[in-house]
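Methods — Computational structure assignment.
A single polypeptide chain was analysed. Its primary sequence is given first, followed by the predicted tertiary structure written as structure tokens.
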Amino acid sequence: MSSMFRSFIAVVLTVPVIFLSACKDEQAQAQANPPESETAARVSVVTVQQRKVVVFDELPGRVSAFRTAEIRPQVSGIIQKRLFNEGAEVDRNEPLFQIDAAPFSADVEASSAILARMEAELLNAQIKFDRAEVLSSQKILSAESFNNATAALAQAKANVAEARANLTRRKLELSYASIRSPIAGLIGQALMSEGGLASSSATTPLAVVQQIDRVYVDIRQSSMTREALEDLVSAGESDDAAKLPVQIFTVAGKLYEEPGQVLFSDMSVDAGTGSVGIRVEVPNPNRQLLPGMYIRAKVPRSIHPDALTVPQEAVLRDPSGRPQLIIVGADKTASRRNVQVGSLVDGQYMIVDGLSAGETVVVLGQDRIQGGVKLETVPYRPVVAVNKS
């Protein structure tokens, strides 16, 4: 092999070695002096502030009508007409059924005739009394005769009053032949049709009218929870619990648009469950909530005027399951801290112990944090769900 060829081979083999050596030097230099953009881990943070938090219990409840009226006849008779459509809105004092009024009209005419006769007898008794009074003043009529005339006049007046009251009663019975609704609301099924005998002593109503533009929701809550909430209110640490809104969820799980308000609690505790009944009034302008419907209600359980909360995403767990937060110090470095968490309310954990107001907590980007590395912090912005319906 010639000396020129051996020199060429030596040069070819030397070039890769020099190239690899240069690459290693560049990597070492890059590790020793990383770019400025990679020196800080970017994380989302939130500064903790005190705020009022209301913790709710989600409890089952049942809807009942604001007012219910059973339509019953006050007189007995044959039903001639049904004057409403089933399931329709009816007004207060609107006629619903018409009972055959002929017998009651006859009674009114008979009572009117009796009253006329009594008034005629009264007129006769008044004339006799006036004559007896004149004769008695002239010492012509005996005292006994005058007394008899006076008693006859009083008796005639009483008969007229009785006849007039009887006529009023008969007119009232005639008006009862038209059965009216005592309240405004929705009327249900007619439980008796035309030709049926309506009896004033019957146990079954003719129909039922329910006012449901407002409804009640009856729920049961633990007596201990209720007592603790009332103690907090009485201590002046919160507003009246009855003024706090109660959120209602329909059978399908949708949030009802109108919040309710607690009216009162039962005075007695159920011996079997240790709970008390609570009545909530809920506006129902669209008649969406119907009597007998089962719903769920979020009822206040406790009130915390100065609570510290962090987003749910900020809470981490160590290998033993203890909750931790990553706190950002004044030097923009992070440190882990064990905390005690409380209730989860609207995606926010209440921090019972281990955190102070004004401290900064990492919410997103915890996996980018390395010991001693400075952080680039940006404010945390929660994701707002968009309703596409």
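Note: The domain at 39-54+306-379 is CATH 2.40.420.20 (conserved putative lor/sdh protein from methanococcus maripaludis s2 fold).
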